[in-house]
Amino acid sequence: MTHKQLVLDNWEFRASGDESWLPAAVPGTVHTDLLRSGLIDQPFYGTNEHRLQWIDKKDWEYRTTLQLDEGWESLAVTELNFAGLDTYADVYVNNVHALSADNMFLAWTVDVKGLLRAGENEILVKFRSVVTEDLPKLEQLGYDLPAPNDQSELGGLEEKRISVFARKAPYHYGWDWGPRFLTSGIWREAVLTGRNAAAIADVYIRQDEVKEASARLTAIVEVDAPDSWAGTLRMTVEGQEWTREVTLEPGKGVVELDLVIDQPRLWWCNGLGAPELTTFRAELLENGAVLADAEVRTGLREIKLIRQPDAKGASFKFELNGVPVFAKGANHIPNDSFITEVSEERYRHEIASAAESNMNMLRVWGGGFYEEEVFYRLCDEYGLLVWQDFMFACSMYPGDEVFLENVRKEAEYNVRRLRNHPCIALWCGNNEIDSAWAQFEENKGWGWKEKLSGEVRETLWTAYEEIFHRILPEAVTAHHPGIDYWPSSPLRELTNDADQHSVRIAGDGDVHYWGVWHGIEPFENYNVKVGRFMSEYGFQSFPELKSVLTYAEEKDMELESEVMLAHQKNGRGNQIIKEYMDIYLPEAKDFKSFLYMSQILQAEAMRMAIESHRRNKPYCMGTLYWQMNDCWPVASWAGMDYYGRWKALQYTARRSFNDVMLSVEVTDGDNVQVHAVSDLPGALAGALVLRLHAFSGAVLKEWKQSVQLAADSSAVVFTVPLAELMAGLDAKQVVLAASLLAEDGTLLERKEHYFAAAKELTLEQPVLTVAEVPGSGGLSFTVSTDVLARGVYLTAEQEGIFSDNYFDLLPGQVKTVQFLRRRADAAAGAGMETGAGAGVETVETGAKAGAGAGVATGVKAGAGVPYFVPAAPQGLEVRSMADYVN
Ligand code: BMA
């Protein structure tokens, strides 16, 4: 036996100083171990978060014993690998200190050959409290480092914000959507490995040039050889084979092999094609026998951020295999406060939901953590590009050599870990720090500089530049060449003057637009505040009642109850929701109705934003709303709650991100314009039908015309003066329904437009009828109504989503819907192998029905097998907005 591997399990844990040990899970966290041992209450329930802050003030110990057979002793190399330790940890092997760790985002490997023996061995990991460890660093510094999201008060630390000192997930310290849980523990796998012979430590398939005709690649194989070694390196991919004779010195050596693949199967993002993946196999051969091997599955593609000067500034757009991509998606945050609770199933639910919602990009935001392997694997498989932040957000960081060196290692490790994933489209230095600090604009930014002396300011900016303008880009250039680096999101351009910061919407760089929400600007400003790439904007809502009831009781059902406030982390959040609701929506009749109404409000805001960004293509080339998901049940900007339940926003995003989109806008000059936007790579011919309806369904006016949509375009396809449209009519009593039909009559897209806010409309109580589609086996339903129904909301008792929900419905319109559940066996094997390009599309939703019906369209990419599949709903109910108002 030349290789041995043992996954370390059977762990126990205790607080340092305690006598007895309790069972522990690895990977895991101290909070979840305490919970499973029955020592703490469910952290997300009620106000429990406030009572669990003692946990991070203690030191914790984890131990396990290993029975090793004699075979281990004869191995040349024996190493202990910790893929993740959270955070300040010392590892002892049979009471001998073996390793000190100080960065959650690093993996640790230590030679333990001399420390182990045949028979029983003890591995002990001691975690020091980040609080006791880092408070002295703050004291020593003598001034505060800005970190506004750090909920130090909740943690009993007053104003002492220490989050910036530890290389630990920033959101653990609290955020404006997240609780403060400073976990510790062995959060990724721990393994003992041993070997006598050379092993492959790493394989990187560097994509030097990928074109349709051929891909020029370099396989960079890192070999770890205990002794000098001579033999053959063989690379194989899909029947092609390359070999190279190698001679290695003891230790780590790198062997490179040039590979050329003709007519490669290219990897495409969702909407543009199939996300083809290719498996490369590396083998070390000794006398013809395989001594060691490794596989890498990657996708061949060229991805570039194009920032080309133009008349209005400079572009900010991604190009995939030479094709411009309008980025559609959201910002991803960690799926749990306790990362190790997130199963593959939960990851798949999120990524499949994104793909199903017609997204093609997620931004892994810099306040979380460098995600798990499975996250990127699923993004590869579903064709979701990843904008990857380094883990720095909304704070200034120390610049001492120890800290910088730690960052250097972290950058190198994570870039190397993720670089084979074709989904990685961009590395970004940090979230919002450049604009929050605003070095070159004295009175702009978040007011951080003003509180600090000139000397301190200089120190902090020097540290900033060292990290974000040197260490991180150098790591990307060295280890992931070909992928662009963007120093901060948002940023205009590195100019070293006032033009650098994205403190206002400008003609270049990416933009976080928070005028709506934090700035209380009207939703209508989404129509005008459009940048080249909208990497953040958002609006909060509450989770649905079922989700709220997991943390609150009937008695807490009040906006300002202690429990509800504990689950609203944005100080002004509730007030802001109320203010906007007063402007746009009728008054909710009670608190439970308010939950529903908050989702309608959020969805409407995001619809307006997304439509506006897409209308402005190609000036604007991306829209990522804040935020995709939640890390606990809470009021937040998420489109999908902690339990994976789709809010109204998720359905709206799905519709608004449809490849073909209609959008109705009333211009300043009081013209009604209908825009048609197409992300399809081919041209499209069809018919535009506009009907102005009374709420009874009666058609008051009608227009029909043929339309030609160019490939990848946005155009105004119809204009009428508002006065002419509205002549003799009351704006509060009409709705304009715009439909786009393919040449064969298939409905490609439909959009309703109102000329007054929902609260102004003279809405009546509709009678909604749901009927099973005959012959559908209970899997399809039609929904119809007698008068206009807004926000039609379907519910079932089981967990699942609907093919559409929270939609408006007019009399005469028959809407077919399906209830969809996660495929039970999906996690097991819904890989690309089963039929790339078959599409994740599972249901008829009108808008997408045209694909494949003779319409020029891109291949709907996805994981090959649908993840959400039709099921018979139990307890199907239907309501609409009228049921939630007085
Ligand atoms: C942006 C994000 C987060 C925050 C969100 C909502 O600034 O980068 O920091 O959660 O806004 O305020």
Descriptive notes:
The chain has 886 residues and is α+β, with helices and mostly antiparallel strands. The chain folds into 5 domains: 3-191, Jelly Rolls (Sandwich); 198-298, Immunoglobulins (Immunoglobulin-like, Sandwich), CATH 2.60.40.10; 303-656, Alpha-Beta Barrel (TIM Barrel), CATH 3.20.20.80; 661-762, Immunoglobulin-like; 763-886, no CATH class. The chain contains 15 helices and 50 strands. It has a 6-stranded antiparallel β-sheet with strand order 3-2-4-10-7-8. α4 (344-356) packs parallel to α5, α6 (401-418) packs parallel to α8 (454-479) and α12 runs parallel beside α13. The longest helix is centred in the middle third of the chain and has 26 residues, at 454-479. The model is unreliable at 826-862 (pLDDT under 50). The protein binds beta-D-mannopyranose. Residues 175-177, 367, 394, 431-432, 512, 536, 626, 637 line the site of beta-D-mannopyranose.
How many domains comprise the coordinates? 5
Give the helix proportion (percent range): 10-25%
Write the CATH fold name of the largest domain.
TIM Barrel
Characterize the biggest β-sheet. 6 strands, antiparallel
Structural class: alpha+beta
Stretches with pLDDT under 50, minimum 5 residues: 826-862
- Share in β-strands: 25-35%
CATH architecture of the largest domain: Alpha-Beta Barrel
Shape: globular
* Overall residue-averaged pLDDT value: 94
Rounded to an integer, what's the Rg over CA atoms? 28 Å
**CATH class descriptor name of the largest domain:** Alpha Beta
Number of helices: 15
Across the major sheet, the strand order is: 3-2-4-10-7-8
Q: Can you say what the CATH homologous superfamily of the largest domain is?
A: Glycosidases
Give the strand tally.
50
Could you give the distance between the termini? 75 Å
